[in-house]
Write a structure and sequence with these properties.
The N and C termini lie far apart (about 165 Å). This protein is mainly alpha-helical. Strands 2-1-3 form a three-stranded antiparallel β-sheet. Strand 1 and strand 2 form a beta hairpin. Among the domains are: about 80 residues; about 80 residues, Fusion Protein Consisting Of Minor Coat Protein, Glycine Rich Linker, Tola, And A His Tag, Chain: A, Domain 2, CATH 3.30.1150. The radius of gyration is 75 Å and the shape is elongated.
């Protein structure tokens, strides 16, 4: 039995108790009201046949249960029929699969046999090709060895010939170098001689200008009271190509600042050594662009 078999009796019992409680409640309070009003009242009651209702509920329940049993039985019959149909179909399919598998196995067996025959034939051809390739490799190796021997012989001959040519070339180069060295030494000696002669000529040419510059400075010099015999000062002169004095300063002083300053003033009084414009510009740049002059006035010389 399940929950539904108790539902209907419980519902009927609940209804019956509600009716009884309602009647009692109405009877109690109605009697009190009647006593207050002193008027008689009539109570109408209705009897409920619970046995009949319970029996009817049980019959309905049994009918529902039977209906469900019939439905389940019908479903089971259908299920068995479907299972049999499905089993027959599966059996038929299995039979077909077995037949297909046998057919496929036979075809595979035949294909494997054919493949083995082809493989044997291929192996035979491969062995033949390998033998042929080995013979070719051996012949090629022999040919390469012969070629290598000839190449080594050729290289050896070429090396000897190159060494011979190198020796000849070195001998020729040594002779040429020796000849060139002799010529270079001769040219260098001649050039040195020419330079010495030119330097001597230049020195002779510029020596007079140095005396000229010293004389010009001495003429412009004013002897300071502190000057004494033997005093000298080394001056640095910077000249322009026109002979103008660009700068003058003391390199080595005399020890007497008045004497040193008098020498600088004398150079500035000259201002320009005009004869220097007659010099070769190259000689001017070499000797008189910047030079040192030792200034010793003649009246202070011993």
């Amino acid at each position: 039995m399940n929950l539904r078999s108790y539902l209907l009796p419980a519902l009927l019992a609940l209804i019956l108790h509600s009716v009884i409680l309602s009647a009692l409640f109405y009877s109690w309070f109605g009697y009190a009201e009647d006593q207050r009003q002193l008027t008689p009242r009539h109570v109408k009651a209705q009897m409920v046949d619970l046995k009949t209702q319970v029996k009817a509920s049980q019959q309905a329940k049994q009918a529902e249960t039977q209906k469900k049993k019939d439905a389940r039985k019908k479903a089971e019959v259908k299920k068995k029929a479907d299972a049999k149909k499905k089993a027959d179909a599966k059996k038929k399919l299995d039979t077909k699969k077995k037949a297909d598998a046998k057919k496929k196995a036979d075809a595979k067996k035949k294909a494997d046999a054919k493949k083995r025959d082809a493989l044997k034939k291929k192996e035979a051809l491969k062995d033949k090709a390998q033998k042929k390739e080995k013979a070719r490799i051996a012949a090629e190796k022999k040919r390469q060895q012969e070629t290598k021997r000839k190449e080594q012989e050729r290289q050896e001959n070429a090396r000897k010939e190159a060494e011979r040519q190198q020796v000849e070339k070195e001998q020729q180069a040594a002779e040429q170098q020796e000849k060139a060295q002799r010529e270079a030494e001769l040219d260098a000696a001649m050039a040195e001689e020419e330079r010495e002669m030119q330097a001597e000529q230049d020195q002779q040419s510029v020596a007079g200008y140095r005396d000229y510059i010293a004389a010009e400075i001495e003429q412009s010099w004013r002897r300071p009271p502190s000057a004494r015999n033997g005093m000298k000062v080394l001056l640095a002169l910077h000249l322009l190509p026109t002979g103008e004095v660009d700068n003058v300063y003391v390199v080595t002083g005399s020890g007497n600042s008045h004497f040193d300053e008098s020498a600088i003033r004398a150079v500035k009084r000259v201002g320009r050594f005009s004869k220097l414009q007659e010099m070769d510009p190259v000689l001017f740049d070499r000797y008189y662009r910047k030079f040192n002059l030792e200034f010793i006035p003649s009246d202070l010389r011993r």
